[in-house]
Amino acid sequence: MLNRRPELPVYHVQPLTVVKGRGVTVYDEAGVEYLDLYGGHAVAASGHCHQRVVRAIVAQAEQLLFYSNAVQMPVRRELCGKLLDFAGGRFTAVFLTNSGAEANEAALTIARLATGRRKIASVTGGFHGRSLLTLSLSGLERYRALTSVAGEPLFAHGVVLPFGDVRAARETIDDSFAAIIVEPVQGLAGCLPLPADYLAALREIADRTGARLIFDEVQCGIGRTGAFFAAEHTGVWPDLISLAKGLAAGFPIGATLVAEHLLPALNAGDLGTTFGGGPLACAAALANLAAIEEEQMIANAREVGAYLIARLTEIRGVARVQGRGLMIGAVLDRPASAVASRLLQEHRILAGTSAVPEVLRLLPPLNLRREHADRFCAALSAVLEKP
Ligand code: PLP
Questions:
Q1: Which of 28, 33, 160, 174 is deepest in the core (most CB within 10 A)?
Q2: Among 11, 123, 186, 219, which residue has the most ligand 1 atoms within 8 Å of its CB, making it the best to mutate?
Q3: CA-220 nearest atom, ligand 1
Q4: Distance between CA 361 and CA 228 in Å, rounded?
């Protein structure tokens, strides 16, 4: 009993206790305010505790807490329809889950069922979740290694392509591949967009070989880059898109959007989940999407994101800025983790780090305003100027 630790110590935990959130602000137990430029990992899309989302959850809880996918449910149908509307008719159906990893697993399963093939390609820097298959496909060695046993990968049919290398992709992918999975803007790799011509080449390779193209928009979707889908910036559309994080502003949910031509490959029982598509998650997601639309948060992400990127590039100690909208990686001239710690302790601002030590990662609520961006830039300048 002496060693009892309530929570398994697998996380790097900040010296901060959060008990409340409103908009772009979170509060500790003493009521002290913190400006949140991290959004709880890109989750608080419409901000913390948007009243519309809170009220929708309460109203749905009064009505029906849960029933499974074995019955029809208007709130689920409405959410799936809404996601298809955002995609402008490019997809035909949606499978709802509880998380991003599950949304990717569903996409990969569909691609494998549709092709009858085993191999899956991913790209260096990509991160697709913590299930054993998605970890096996990680483009980040540190995560992929978690699935190796004595140096041998648990899933032997994954191939990691070099970032942005069209030639390597052409030479590697053939008609034995079921899927190519990519993040159009890589999150954990520091908010790094894949070049549009690389995505176009992957689309062409997928069409030629019959592999299915999957965009993992778990982090970069739901307006984060200044468009509902990051795909919109590139003009390239995949066969499957996975979403999660910002979809219900904190209520666990994942979604896989499926193109029409994949439907004939699927039969009842091929996919399933107990909690995925539950009414609370659907109600929260619908309210979150309505808030994002009505308050024009995607246009705001574009506008304030461009402003923040421009201001960041002027700061001494920021070597480069990458990303889009409110998915921003500030590449510093020093390790970002010490800078993030000082932003928290000296300025009460939350910012993220990434798999690249120098990248400070910003994933704020989509209703961040210019004055918040100004406050962040002033704090970052102060930290970088005073070693
Ligand atoms: N895909 C991307 C791009 C992610 O950033 C993440 C989480 O960080 C995941 C998938 C996994 O999502 P979840 O943690 O909800 O399973």
A1: 160
A2: 219
A3: 3
A4: 20
CA of 316 to the centre of ligand 1 (A): 32
Q: Give distance in angstroms: CA of 63 to centre of ligand 1.
A: 31
Residue carrying the six token digits 């923040």: 308
Segments of the chain assigned to CATH 3.90.1150.10: 20-49+295-385
Name the residue with the closest Cα to ligand 1, atom 12. Answer: 100
Give the separation between CA 162 and CA 336, rounded to whole angstroms. 25
Predicted model pTM: 0.98
Cα 385 to averaged position of ligand 1 atoms, centre (Å): 34
What gap in Å lies between CA 130 and CA 123, rounded to an integer? Answer: 16
Q: Phi/psi of residue 255, each to 5°? A: -145, 140
The protein residue whose alpha carbon is closest to atom 1 in ligand 1 is 128
Residues of the chain with CATH 3.40.640.10: 51-294
User: Any idea which fold 51-294 has?
Assistant: Aspartate Aminotransferase; domain 2 (3.40.640)
Q: By the 8 A CB rule, do 227 and 59 touch? A: no
List, edge to edge, every strand of the sheet that includes 25-27. Answer: 20-22, 25-27, 33-36, 349-350
Interval between CA 209 and ligand 1 midpoint (Å): 27
Q: Whose CA is nearest to atom 5 of ligand 1?
A: 219
d(CA 10, CA 135): 16
- By CB neighbour count within 10 A (0-12 exposed, 13-18 middle, 19+ buried), where does 155 fall? middle
- The pLDDT, as a whole number, for residue 5 is 83
Q: Average pLDDT of 104-119? A: 98
Cα 158 to averaged position of ligand 1 atoms, centre (Å): 18
- CATH number, domain 20-49+295-385: 3.90.1150.10
Q: How many CB atoms lie within 10 A of CB 310?
A: 12
Q: Which amino acid is at 270?
A: D
| Mean local confidence (pLDDT), 48-60 | 98
Determine the distance separating the centroid of ligand 1 and the alpha carbon of 284, expressed in angstroms: 19
Asked if 173 contacts 203 with a C-beta cutoff of 8 angstroms, the reply is no
| pLDDT higher than threshold 80 for residue 1 | no
Q: Which of 128, 130, 182 to mutate to test the pocket of ligand 1 (most atoms within 8 A of CB)?
A: 128
